[in-house]
């Protein structure tokens, strides 16, 4: 059976800051491309291309978000940036090992995005969204 991937839901995932919500949505879309490619049995070349795209989006997004946090003096910046680093390291690790041979790659990538969505996005970034909104950003 095909996995449906992640479904972006503005009221659930949105943090009320347009630029960040848009970037999060793009990351979710790219993750869904990765999931579909795994299910379609795509070649490692295609997988690598998609994963490189995901790493690029994540890196750009994390950089953007950290600059915003710093600009607006968000007190949770340090811990949040540490989480970003952990997520990037995980992605790098996937790229070094996962898609050539791991039979559990679908499960691993799903666990990764679930963590990212539930722990990082829904917890830390709701707080960030509220903080930025209190500073007049939308
Ligand atoms: Fe984010
Ligand atoms: Fe973040």
Automatic annotation (TrEMBL):
Molecular-function annotations in GO: metal ion binding; oxygen carrier activity
Tree of life domain: Bacteria
Domain Hemerythrin-like: 16-130
The entry's keywords: Iron, Metal-binding, Oxygen transport, Transport
Family to which the UniProt record says this protein belongs: Belongs to the hemerythrin family.
UniProt-listed NCBIfam families: hemeryth_dom
Protein name (Swiss-Prot/TrEMBL): Hemerythrin-like domain-containing protein
Species of origin: Sulfurimicrobium lacus
């Amino acid at each position: 059976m095909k996995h449906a991937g992640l479904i972006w839901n503005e009221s659930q995932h949105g943090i009320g800051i347009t630029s960040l919500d848009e970037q999060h949505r793009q990351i979710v879309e790219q993750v869904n491309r990765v999931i579909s490619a795994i299910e379609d049995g795509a070649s490692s070349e295609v997988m690598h291309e998609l994963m490189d795209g995901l790493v690029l989006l994540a890196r750009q997004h994390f950089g953007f978000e950290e600059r915003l946090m710093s600009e607006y003096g968000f007190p949770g910046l340090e811990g949040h940036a540490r989480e970003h680093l952990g997520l990037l390291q995980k992605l790098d690790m996937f790229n070094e090992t996962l898609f050539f041979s791991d039979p559990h790659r679908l499960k691993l990538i799903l666990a990764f995005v679930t963590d990212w969505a539930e722990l990082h996005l829904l917890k830390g970034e709701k707080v960030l969204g509220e903080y930025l909104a209190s500073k007049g950003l939308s």
